[in-house]
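General statements about sequence and structure are easier to judge against a single worked case. When preparing material for the folding task, we compiled for one chain both its residues and its backbone structure tokens. The amino acid sequence and the backbone structure tokens for this protein are reproduced below:
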Amino acid sequence: MSRSKPLIAIVGRPNVGKSTLVNRIVGRRAAVVQEKPGVTRDRRYFEAEWNGRSFTVIDTGGWQRSADAELVEDIRTQAELAIAAADLIVFVVDAQGIISTDDAAVAALLRPARDRVVVAANKSDNEGIARSAGEFGRMGLGDPVPVSAIHGQGVAELLDIVVGRIPDAAEDRAEDRIPEAAIIGRPNVGKSTLMNRLTGEERVVVSPVPGTTRDPIDVDIEIDGSTYRLIDTAGIRRKPKISEDVEYFAVLRAREVLRRADAALLLVDALDGVTHQDQRIAEEAARSGAALIVLLNKWDAADRDRKEQTTAEVGYKLGFAGWAPVLRISALSGARLHRLGPALETVLANRERRIPTPALNRLLAEWTGEHPPPVRKGRRPRILYAAQSRTAPPTLALFVKGGKIDDTYLRYLERRARQAYDFMGTPIRLVIRRSAGRKGPR
């Protein structure tokens, strides 16, 4: 479950001092600094460290919308790719000026990701300018941090904020964080029995009465040498069947556990087959972003016809999560539970898988060449670039110009991505980001 160093993207319109700030952060003259706008065109990566925290700084070209700027669209797209991939974004503005049209356009681009943005009001060379820099707080991205990259003023304070908000280093996360697996399913399918079997002791009450487990219960266990935090949850039911407030809140807690889980173990009663409620719960798990393993419980108690019927139902009722591995087990006897450890290891590793940007764009060109996006309302959308902006779950950002891309085509792209890379057990998210055209703001 490793990941690269945190990525910090330095973005803003041309000539606000982004490269000067990069040099100040890196501690050497790494980025080219010149008064002429547009010197930085591609994304450039530099390693940096502050207060014992290591991270990677991405220097980007100036983002602008003017149609006559040389290579403006390519530069802008490179900046947008950096924004998509970054763990934190430092939006640099010129404190000696006003909010320009390009500043406002960048702010609009960043606003959906405001939790990942720090505004740096550069060229705050004296107290008067620093005070007037507060005007940039009107962009809706938080209070700006006054800095002077050329003189070094305020940069230490900016870096303190940056390292306080970036994710933990990969090595710390890998060593310290225990993967969490939520045992989910409708009431009375054997969730607590599975918990007790895996822990080797009676940690939770097992009862044939549905709804016995009210609160999520955490326990750390070791499977095949790896430690996991198992969470037994209250059975998730449809709202019309929830008659008690305590049971209603138990459902809410179960869903909250699912949102924070790294993996979900969905128990399905092989004797009942796949019910509508099983489908609903599987949808919840897929939307949550957790890795998913389907466990067909009580398999040994099912006769041949029932096994064939349940297997068929998994295929067509849970087809939307066909990427999830299916294990046939018995929580009561422990039969075939030895397969759970390898399955967990695989799906969690796949959830952290990253496709390199050059490889992704080569594949994307191949996929769209074989099957272009369909025309909608007389316009054919064009996917300019793609980048994997996140892992856990893998998230692919598609920079699109022109018409609308529908869900059917996104499913096609997801299917091709799964054919090219092993994403078994993890959902994949595809996010559309509109790439600004060459026209200026309206």
